[in-house]
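Q: My labmate handed me this sequence with no annotations at all. I'd like to see what the chain might look like in three dimensions before we decide whether it's worth expressing. Could you predict it?
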Amino acid sequence: MSNAMSHYDALEPGVLDNETTPVQNHDGANLSVRDLTRLLHIDCPDETWLARTAFALRRVREGESLMRAGDKFHSLYVVRSGCFKTVYTDFSGSEQVLGFPMSGDLMGADGIDSGHYGSTAVSLDTSEVAIMPFASFARLIFECPRLEPLLYRVLSRELVRVQNMAWTLGTLGAEGRVAAFLLALSARLGASGYSRCSFNLRMTRQEIGSYLGLKLETVSRALSTLNAAGIIQVHQRSIDIVDADALRGVIDPAAGIAASIAPPPAPAAARRGANGSMRVRKQRSQFQHGLAWRQLAAA
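A: Here is what I predict for the chain of 299 residues:
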């Protein structure tokens, strides 16, 4: 790897489908791999040249689509700032909100298998994403095998979030679903350096209801119930969590609290040895670094 900055361009010419909504690129703005791993809350391999390797940044205005269901898959996206909603639209035109990706979240992985994105990502705020063209990212992993298990960790995190959502929908009532949603949102904002107790909802109550499998009126009623109980304070889209323990108590303790409610663990590259000194733990990939990444990099 050369000493010059290695810049993985956002897209090769002609890759972007005609249906994709244009979004604003930053002239020369990029994010290094080291900063990207920090954003994803994972440890970066100790490779000096990774600090000089960067992916392009893109700004998406409120209401614009970053990707659309059915578009040809070409890139993964990591949210640097702002908030999105991912939406699935059925044959009748009805929309189902699948999630609200925000800082540190990965988008676009649903297109890896079929070669086409399975959902539409719409920005709920002026947002910024790092663009990882999959072929370029595969080449990077081939050059630095220690990045491979880190990718699996991020994908696993998204899978756990989906499983936790299934637990929420299958176990909790209306107030419990709203409580779990607020706790998860609080933890995610806290992990990004924002207040866990006071925040503004970027999504509407209609969108929250779609995500939680509830009607708009039910979401409003659940928020009013929690507000009347003194557990939270609600003023339009502003939420103040007054009693986090009481909010957790709304969730059935016998069923447990979904893992998505807890903040992601801090990187643990170092462990303290028996003599009290810091001992660096060398991570070893449990995945064989085979031919697949070479083939993807050549795609």
